[in-house]
Design goal:
With about 130 residues, the protein is mainly β. It has one helix and eight strands. The strands form two sheets. The protein has a five-stranded mixed β-sheet, with no helix packed on it. A hairpin with a 2-residue loop joins strand 4 and strand 5.
Length: about 130
């Protein structure tokens, strides 16, 4: 009878371990024009000038490793995609930035954020003259 319960107990243990509140997860996404020393956004913004640098900070908590990515778009056109492999043991912020070499044309932009390949948030912003 003990051998019949062992697979059930093991399956339950694996299931509970994967649902741990300590597992690395995204807790927020920030968009802005400056970064703090801890990689969080210093000045949040949704409107930018053509020569500004746009920053996205992906906030996480928990323990683990993951790939965090951002796809920057101007309308439907992909401008840039970046991925970072991270491994954290506590609260952290992973930063990404976009700067146009000759400045950004005015219009609507977006930053799509991914966590291990799955979309978690999209931040939209506008560049004005």
């Amino acid at each position: 009878m003990v051998t019949k319960r062992l697979p059930i107990v093991l399956a339950l243990a694996v299931s509970l371990a994967s649902c741990s509140p300590h597992t690395l997860r995204v807790t927020g996404v920030q968009l802005g024009r400056t970064l703090n020393a801890d990689n969080t956004v210093g000045i949040t913004a949704t409107t930018f000038n053509p020569t500004d640098t746009v920053y996205v900070s992906v906030l996480t908590s928990g323990i683990g490793s993951a790939t965090i990515g951002v796809r920057w778009k101007f309308g439907d056109r992909v401008l840039n995609e970046a991925n970072k492999q991270v491994s954290y043991k506590d609260i952290a912020a992973t930063d990404f930035s976009l700067k146009g070499a000759a400045g950004f044309p005015p219009g609507e932009y977006s930053a799509e954020v991914f966590f291990d390949g799955k979309p978690v948030d999209t931040k939209t912003f506008r560049v004005i003259k």
